[in-house]
Design goal:
mainly alpha, Arc Repressor Mutant, subunit A, Tetracycline Repressor, domain 2, globular
Length: 202
């Protein structure tokens, strides 16, 4: 098997897995589902990724890194306001999770398991030392907020992640379908920055 064939097969597996995981969710997806979508045999998936769990983790870690690659230039742009940074990053964040709806569950499980290998852990210094972080700290220094700025970051993350954590139940009970949930998250792209602006008094 040539190196080019290896890359091609691996990418086909990842592309198929992303689509099936997004459509059916991690728990309902089987290795055979992914193999059928990729038009390969189950043994090939086991050869490249060993298990469904490892394939899922690989895709989620790629997703996290992809998000960081997008937001890092935004967070360090000294020519944009705090509100503009939040507006852009919230949009990127929601789009990324819409592509991988099981992403919040993966994050929660990894954090609870004490994982130190997640890209979010390795990039924590990037966040702490960013221009965005300096702007947040300035809010406290200038008296615009009377609480620790980390609460603002937690608020943003929570307002994005929690709807996705409840998504399976919402869809299962028939309260919303996938298209309606998608539209709700498009609304939140606009609402979250507005809510944060009110909290920050800017």
């Amino acid at each position: 098997m040539t190196e080019a064939t290896d890359v091609s097969t691996e990418e086909r597996i990842k592309d198929a897995a992303r689509m099936i995981f997004t459509k059916k969710g991690f728990l309902a997806t089987t290795i055979r589902d992914i193999a059928t979508e990729a038009d390969i045999n189950v043994a090939s998936i086991n050869y490249y990724f060993r298990s469904k769990e490892k394939l899922f983790a690989f895709i989620m870690e790629e997703s996290i890194q992809k998000l960081f690659n997008k937001v890092e230039p935004v967070l360090n742009d000294e020519n944009t306001s705090l509100f503009e940074k939040i507006e852009v990053c919230v949009g990127y964040y929601i789009d990324q999770v819409l592509e991988n709806p099981d992403f919040p569950f993966f994050m929660v499980n990894e954090v609870m398991a004490g994982s130190t290998k997640l890209p979010v852990i390795s990039n924590i210094k990037l966040l702490v030392n960013s221009h965005f972080a300096k702007q947040l700290r300035a809010l406290e220094t200038d008296g615009k907020i009377n609480f620790h700025p980390i609460n603002l970051v937690w608020n943003i993350s929570g307002m994005i992640m929690f709807p996705f954590l409840t998504r399976p139940q919402l869809l299962q009970t028939g309260n919303f379908n996938s298209d309606e949930f998608y539209q709700l998250m498009q609304e939140r792209k606009k609402l979250i920055p507005i809510w944060m602006k009110q909290i920050m008094n800017i």
